[in-house]
Amino acid sequence: MGKIIVYEHINFQGMSREFHTNIANLKDADWNDCISSVKVIGHPWVAYQHADYKGHLLVLEEGDHDFVGKKMNDRISSLQVITENLHNPQITLYEHADYQGKSRVIREATNLARGHDNDTTSSHKVQSGVWLLCEHSDGGGFQYLAREHEHLPNYKAIDFNDKLSFLRPLCPGCGC
């Protein structure tokens, strides 16, 4: 599966701690709101702004992340490892709620802002993998993590209706 090593300062400086499993509240490990850089080995992890995997999220794929960004610096309160099989990802997007209207199957990172499907999606079904759905074509704005076998019939439930501009599957780590 892998692990995540968190550091209290940028560029992997200061105290560090290693995690191998989800932690819903970093206060329990005395690491709440003090993470500035991380190293990920193996499967991706998701850092959340609040305990219990809530609030803004940051996807951390395998590699060294010398700074978690201004939005999440010293604001991470929970960590979750991605356990789904990330090979051969596939998601079906639907124009309207309840899987109605025009549909489109996506298997790779796609910038919808460059075509007819920008800001027109209202529901999805994930066949495989885990997908990062983004409001803006640069990957910014509101972000949502769509998990394997998730069916979301109405984006109004997450205040995301007709806002999807970019999506990409998460990459599996090599676990080296």
UniProtKB/TrEMBL annotation:
<dbReference type="InterPro" id="IPR001064">
    <property type="entry name" value="Beta/gamma_crystallin"/>
</dbReference>
<feature type="domain" description="Beta/gamma crystallin 'Greek key'">
    <location>
        <begin position="89"/>
        <end position="128"/>
    </location>
</feature>
<dbReference type="GO" id="GO:0002088">
    <property type="term" value="P:lens development in camera-type eye"/>
</dbReference>
<dbReference type="InterPro" id="IPR050252">
    <property type="entry name" value="Beta/Gamma-Crystallin"/>
</dbReference>
<dbReference type="InterPro" id="IPR011024">
    <property type="entry name" value="G_crystallin-like"/>
</dbReference>
<feature type="domain" description="Beta/gamma crystallin 'Greek key'">
    <location>
        <begin position="2"/>
        <end position="42"/>
    </location>
</feature>
<dbReference type="GO" id="GO:0005212">
    <property type="term" value="F:structural constituent of eye lens"/>
</dbReference>
<dbReference type="Pfam" id="PF00030">
    <property type="entry name" value="Crystall"/>
</dbReference>
<dbReference type="GO" id="GO:0007601">
    <property type="term" value="P:visual perception"/>
</dbReference>
<protein>
    <recommendedName>
        <fullName>Beta/gamma crystallin 'Greek key' domain-containing protein</fullName>
    </recommendedName>
</protein>
<keyword id="KW-0677">Repeat</keyword>
<comment type="similarity">
    <text>Belongs to the beta/gamma-crystallin family.</text>
</comment>
<feature type="domain" description="Beta/gamma crystallin 'Greek key'">
    <location>
        <begin position="43"/>
        <end position="83"/>
    </location>
</feature>
